[in-house]
């Protein structure tokens, strides 16, 4: 059996995946190897995922963003799912999680792995309970069967809800929103029905063996994450976190990579506390958080309420952010919701990388600012995080080609444009001319901190039809808050 990335790193080997990661992150291969060996970073790379372009998740590397996709009972078409994959990658997702609960799950999962250049994650308890018919009918044998099958299909990381224990359930009784994790609620129902310990906890070492064989990365699920500000940082949440720390070390002992999932809904003043506590309890294993949402009062705008928390969490050391769309808590996201959610989270990730002093991260900002000051509209559009939207917004009010050379936009008009006035003043010799020039080609920034994010040129992902017709995507069926 081949070594996992963790085992290879511990033995001093720089794998091909580590070398590729080093190239993408503009880091020394040895630095990548050491971070993986220490458990401070993971390279989710199933040995069977041939289409993968390896990437790394860790607090000392560029902040990454995950997008949730997946089908439901009403939409189970493979081509539609591949279009979802394409759109997620197109708008900058570093990983995708297939949270499908509908029909034809095996065929869709296999197609996603075959076509995805980014790591694919899953939550196997969803398929297991679908096959069982109810949470009460789950068995450890079925759970292991599903996990092994998904690993064999090439899934790179899996959310495993092994940290919620029978003794944790009474701690949720005073909560406002109870257990909001879908996987957590399923396992809590099973434990309440039988009065027995979490079946995933019972077979955790067996799961480690499967993950070691295929080099699947654990994403340890936060089954008791808070679903409201009122429940943040409570005894239930932190009791499970302590268990996740224990499970992290057990997986490491078997040479399996681990990242740990986090909240949820957390007030701004307690976000850093959550990150610091996880890093301490889990010995520096990468933290992967949903949001967190910093207020509960803005349904329809939760991509904003959550990206505020996401930026703060990434600033504090979170390694990967799970995006939230405007449809969170309200319905199934569609294409524009996914676009808005990914844009918000790419902003949060990049802003944190700038604040954390990642090498070269601000070069992108500086280059765009220089283009803006020079009224180089075409370059400004090309450097934008979402070039299509920036170009469209400009052209709504100044659509003619001549306005691509204009020294103003429709906000101020020609007479009141401050940068035009400043330029004229400098041309007249009253102030020195500005000469700043940022060379992005020479920037030491990681790939995700340089334009374009994602595949804005429409790179091939999915079927030919999906590539040609990607703009007709709709019905993104997996809510981000469902893990």
TrEMBL record:
Note on how the cofactor is bound: Binds 1 [4Fe-4S] cluster per subunit. The cluster is coordinated with 3 cysteines and an exchangeable S-adenosyl-L-methionine.
Region annotated Disordered, chain positions: 449-483
Record's keyword annotation contains Transmembrane: no
Annotated GO biological process: thiamine biosynthetic process; thiamine diphosphate biosynthetic process
InterPro entries: ThiC, ThiC/Bza_core_dom, ThiC/BzaA/B
EC number(s) reported in the record: 4.1.99.17
Lineage: Archaea, Methanobacteriati, Methanobacteriota, Stenosarchaea group, Halobacteria
Function recorded in the entry: Catalyzes the synthesis of the hydroxymethylpyrimidine phosphate (HMP-P) moiety of thiamine from aminoimidazole ribotide (AIR) in a radical S-adenosyl-L-methionine (SAM)-dependent reaction.
Gene3D superfamilies, sorted: 6.10.250.620, Radical SAM ThiC family, central domain (3.20.20.540)
A Pfam family it matches: ThiC_Rad_SAM
Protein family (similarity comment): Belongs to the ThiC family.
Molecular function via GO: 4 iron, 4 sulfur cluster binding; phosphomethylpyrimidine synthase activity; zinc ion binding
Record's keyword annotation contains Zinc: yes
Listed NCBIfam families: PRK09284.1, PRK13352.1, thiC
Membrane-traversing stretches: none
Pathway the protein takes part in: Cofactor biosynthesis; thiamine diphosphate biosynthesis
Positions of [4Fe-4S] cluster binding: 409, 412, 417
Catalytically driven reaction(s): 5-amino-1-(5-phospho-beta-D-ribosyl)imidazole + S-adenosyl-L-methionine = 4-amino-2-methyl-5-(phosphooxymethyl)pyrimidine + CO + 5'-deoxyadenosine + formate + L-methionine + 3 H(+)
Cofactors (names): [4Fe-4S] cluster
Record's protein name: Phosphomethylpyrimidine synthase
């Amino acid at each position: 059996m081949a070594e996992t990335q963790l085992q290879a790193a511990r033995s001093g080997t720089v794998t091909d995946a580590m070398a590729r990661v080093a190239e993408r992150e503009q880091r020394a291969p040895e630095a990548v190897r050491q971070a993986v060996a220490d458990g401070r970073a993971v390279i989710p790379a199933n040995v069977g995922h041939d289409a993968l372009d390896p990437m790394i998740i860790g607090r000392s590397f560029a902040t990454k963003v995950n997008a949730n996709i997946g089908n439901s009972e009403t939409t189970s078409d493979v081509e539609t799912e591949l279009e979802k994959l394409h759109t997620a990658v197109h708008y900058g997702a570093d990983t995708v999680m297939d949270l499908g609960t509908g029909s034809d799950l095996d065929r869709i999962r296999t197609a996603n792995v075959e076509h995805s250049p980014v790591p694919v994650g899953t939550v196997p308890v969803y398929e297991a309970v679908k096959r069982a018919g109810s949470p009460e009918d789950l068995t450890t044998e079925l759970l292991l069967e599903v996990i092994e099958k998904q690993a064999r299909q090439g899934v790179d990381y899996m959310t495993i809800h092994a940290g919620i224990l029978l003794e944790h359930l009474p701690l949720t009784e005073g909560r406002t929103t109870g257990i909001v994790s879908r996987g957590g609620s399923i396992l809590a129902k099973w434990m309440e029905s039988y009065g027995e310990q979490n079946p995933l906890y019972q077979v955790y070492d067996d799961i480690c063996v499967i993950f070691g064989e295929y080099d699947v990365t654990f994403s340890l699920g936060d089954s008791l994450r808070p679903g409201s500000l009122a429940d943040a940082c409570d005894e239930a949440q932190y009791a499970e976190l302590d268990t996740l720390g224990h499970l992290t070390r057990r997986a490491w002992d078997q040479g399996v990579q681990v990242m740990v999932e986090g909240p949820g809904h957390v007030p701004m003043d307690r976000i850093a506390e959550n990150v610091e506590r996880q890093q301490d309890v889990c010995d520096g294993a990468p933290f992967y958080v949903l949001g967190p949402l910093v207020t509960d009062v803005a349904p329809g705008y939760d991509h904003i309420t959550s990206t505020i928390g996401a930026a703060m969490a990434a600033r504090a050391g979170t390694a990967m952010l799970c995006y939230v769309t405007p449809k969170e808590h309200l319905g199934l996201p569609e294409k524009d919701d996914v676009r808005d959610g990914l844009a918000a989270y790419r902003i949060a990730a990049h802003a944190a990388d700038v604040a954390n002093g990642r090498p070269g991260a601000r070069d992108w900002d500086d280059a765009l600012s220089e283009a803006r000051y020079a009224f180089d509209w075409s370059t400004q559009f090309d450097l934008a995080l979402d070039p299509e939207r920036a170009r469209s917004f400009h052209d709504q009010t100044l659509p003619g080609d001549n306005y691509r050379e204009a020294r103003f936009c429709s906000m101020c008009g020609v007479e009141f444009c401050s940068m035009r006035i400043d330029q004229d003043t400098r041309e007249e010799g009253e102030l020195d001319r500005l000469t700043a020039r940022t060379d992005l080609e020479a920037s030491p920034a990681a790939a995700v901190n340089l334009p374009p994010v994602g595949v804005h040129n429409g790179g091939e992902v999915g079927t030919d039809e999906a590539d040609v017709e990607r703009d007709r995507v709709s019905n993104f069926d997996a809510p981000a808050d469902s893990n």
